[in-house]
Amino acid sequence: MTKWADYLISHVRYNVNHPHIDQVWQREDINDKITNGNSALRSTVVSNIKAGLKYATITKNSNGNWDFGQYIIIDRVNGIDYIKTKADNTTSDNLGNLPTF
Prior knowledge:
Blueprint: E1 7-14, E2 21-30, E3 33-34, E4 38-41, H1 42-50, E5 55-60, E6 66-71, E7 73-77, E8 80-84
Parallel strand pairs: 1-5
Antiparallel strand pairs: 1-2, 2-3, 2-4, 5-6, 7-8
Organism: Nitrosotalea devaniterrae
Protein name: DUF3892 domain-containing protein
InterPro entries: DUF3892
C-alpha cells in the first residue's frame, strides 16, 4: 500500500453547535500499515498541517479495508482556521461524512 499521508482521519467529534469539529480520530499512515490511532484536538491538526504534515480522510469499506477519501486543507475564514477537504469560504469545518466518535 502506498503511503497516503502522515495522518489519516477516520472519525470526528463536533462541538455543541455541531458545525465545528473539536476533535478527530487520527491514525498514523506508516507505509503499509494504518495504526489504531488516538483522538486529537482540531487545533493540533491545524498546527500540524501548518508545520507541513499531510492529512487525509479515510473510511472503512464493506470488506473492512480502508479507502482513501480526500486530502485535508486549512481554509482561513474571518481570521479563523477551519479544517476542510475543499476551500469554500464558509465558517464551518467539513471533512465529508465521516462517522462521529
